[in-house]
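Dear Dr. H.,

I hope your travels went smoothly. While you were away I took the liberty of generating a structure for the chain from your last submission, since the lab meeting agenda had it listed for discussion. I wanted you to have the full record in hand beforehand rather than looking at slides cold. The sequence, exactly as received, is reproduced here:
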Amino acid sequence: MKILSNVIFVVLLTALSAFVLYWTEAKKEVEILCSMFNEGETAEYVTKTLDTGNLLEYTRSGRTLIASSRYNLSSDECKVEFSADDIILNATYTEYFDLAKALVWIGLLLSSLLGIFQLLLALGYPLGKYAWGGEHKILPKNLRIGSFFSMMIFAFTVFLLLMYLTGQHWLPEAYPVLGIMFLISSLANFNSKSTPEKQIMTPIAILLYLCFLNLSLI
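The corresponding predicted structure, in token form, is as follows:
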């Protein structure tokens, strides 16, 4: 039964990873191709360019063409306006929902809370049932040291996400490393003997994994 539950969990993680991957790539495809459309170019050039895309669709009604993708739930679009003789008047890219920024805000909140949580554990507060397998209400010295280092990692995570929100991709090489770390953490938490840790920390680790997966793909 445990093996089956782990298989189902891995399938779920794979599906969520694929969702984030396709969403991100679809957004980039629409945005990049839209940036190639300049005033004065022909409608034929627009359609030939859009036909090179793998994840988008486009429709034209009158003098307006709109390109978007179902892979990111049409959360962004490229709108091209043509003149009477099918020459581009303007091309506008619009993003209605920014998944990356939403995940970063969620990641920032969760990392901040987990950093405080690990600090409290390191200081000896009786919260051990939510961490380290839940075997100790008050952590022994070695695990308290581990919680202190975990707190430092979350502080670093908070710093990286704050930098991203201010437009600075500081140390982007750390994104995939943190993504792998939170992926492993989600698997470990899912198999924890502590029910509170499994129920609370597993979804948190998954969200942090998806956050850094998304940042790694941008």
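Two observations you may find useful: The mean pLDDT is 94. The chain has two domains: 22-95, 99-217.

With kind regards,
E. W.
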